[in-house]
Specification:
Layout lengths: L6 H5 L7 H14 L6 H14 L2 H10 L6 H9 L9 H9 L4 H13 L1
């Protein structure tokens, strides 16, 4: 029986792995399995890396290839970010004093980013 492996299994990484961890796993696998030793294995390692090499690729893979992922898990993964936005007390006070509508909020955000 031929079991189909996911790119995560081929590269031996967790779905929560960072881009750097995935790249390191890929390089390690390629080093241990060069194309002249086993072309098919090398190709599967390369294809796995291409499928999940960065966040955009992983989201695309998870969305279009892995039907077992729930919508909530996909949204959580898509919204997970390493960048944190900080806002000063003065900027928060300015936002709170504004009338709340979409254009006002967008203008306030763009002004605070310029400061």
């Amino acid at each position: 029986m031929n079991i189909i492996k996911t790119p995560y299994q081929i590269l031996d990484v967790q779905p929560s792995a960072t881009d750097a961890e995935i790249k390191q796993a890929y390089l390690s696998k390629v080093k241990n399995n060069p194309p002249d030793r086993d072309q098919l294995l090398f190709q599967s390692i390369h294809d796995a890396y291409i499928a999940i090499k960065d966040l955009k690729s992983r989201i695309s893979y998870d969305l279009f290839t892995v039907p077992s992922m729930s919508f909530d898990e996909l949204v959580d993964q898509a919204l997970k970010t390493t960048q944190q936005n900080t806002i000063s007390a003065r900027q928060l006070n300015t936002l709170l004093q504004l009338s709340i509508d979409d254009s006002t909020i967008q203008n306030a955000i763009s002004r605070t980013k310029k400061q």
